[in-house]
Amino acid sequence: YHWKDGVLCLVKEFEPDVVGFTACTSQFPVIKILADIVKETSPKTINVCGGYHPTLHPQCVVEAKGLDAVFVGESEYSFLNFLEKMKNNQSWKDCNNIAYNDNGKMKKNKLRPFLSNEELGLLPHPDRTGDAYAETLLKSGSAPFHFTRGCPFTCTYCSNIGIAKVYGKTRYNIRSASAEYAIQEIEKTIKEFPEIGPIYKI
Questions:
Q1: pTM for this predicted structure
Q2: How far is CA 133 from CA 7, 127, 143, 144, in A?
Q3: Is 108 helix (H, G, I), strand (E, B) or coil?
Q4: Is the model's pLDDT at 31 over the cut of 80?
């Protein structure tokens, strides 16, 4: 039983309108394969990808024939707008933060500003109940949390400074939701997984 067969089965079972991927650079070759499998199985499905690689190299949307679009930068709200347009049978090609293949050439739309502290506080807490995530969490016996976004440093080898440059800035400034938001996420996780032991912040 090959992992590609698993992807085929899932696509046939769910018949998704949209498949979303995320990728750092080392993962992108696999994303290209997965996107091709989805397209071959379900040509009407729209494949999109976000993450570090598309943010720093949006040209990858032209390199991956199975991808319809990539999301550049902090795209939670742009992705919601994209899904709303899909739901209403409207063109999504004017959504912010999107780059897509326009007859062999990349077309990249404007970026929304970095998410503010207030916008971060409106995002739903991460869903840790998915099979793979829950299994990993239970095996490790601990729950990781990440309550800030950005970095105070400007290391030239790091993706954080690359993201800042994408936005025309010199620093990927730190932002965070409220302390109450963080407490709610911790309490929610403990309620869902009473088996976990230590809780640590990364």
A1: 0.90
A2: 18, 9, 10, 11
A3: strand
A4: yes
Q: Are 120 and 182 in contact (CB under 8 A)?
A: no
User: Which pLDDT score is estimated for 197?
Assistant: 80
Tell me the per-residue pLDDT of 102-123, one tens digit each, with 9 for 90 and over.
999 999 999 999 999 999 999 9
What stretches of 101-194 show up as alpha helix (H) in DSSP?
117-120, 131-140, 159-166, 179-192
Q: Please give the structure tokens belonging to residue 25.
A: 């650079």
pLDDT for the residue 201: 67
Q: Distance between CA 7 and CA 14 in Å, rounded?
A: 11
Question: What local confidence, expressed as pLDDT, does residue 101 receive?
Answer: 95
Q: Determine whether 128 is exposed, middle or buried from the number of CB atoms within 10 Å of its CB (0-12, 13-18, 19+).
A: middle
Task: Give the C-alpha separation, 77 to 50, whole Å.
Answer: 13
The structure tokens listed for 153 are 């440093």
* CA distance linking residue 46 with residue 69, whole number of Å: 8
Question: In a 3-state reduction of DSSP, which class is residue 168?
Answer: coil
Give the amino acid at 191: K
> How confident is the model at residue 133, as a pLDDT?
80
Contact 142, 197 (CB under 8 A): yes
Asked whether the CA dihedral 156, 159, 161, 163 is positive or negative, the reply is: positive
pLDDT band at 146 (very low <50, low <70, confident <90, very high): confident
Name the amino acid, one letter, at 41. Answer: T
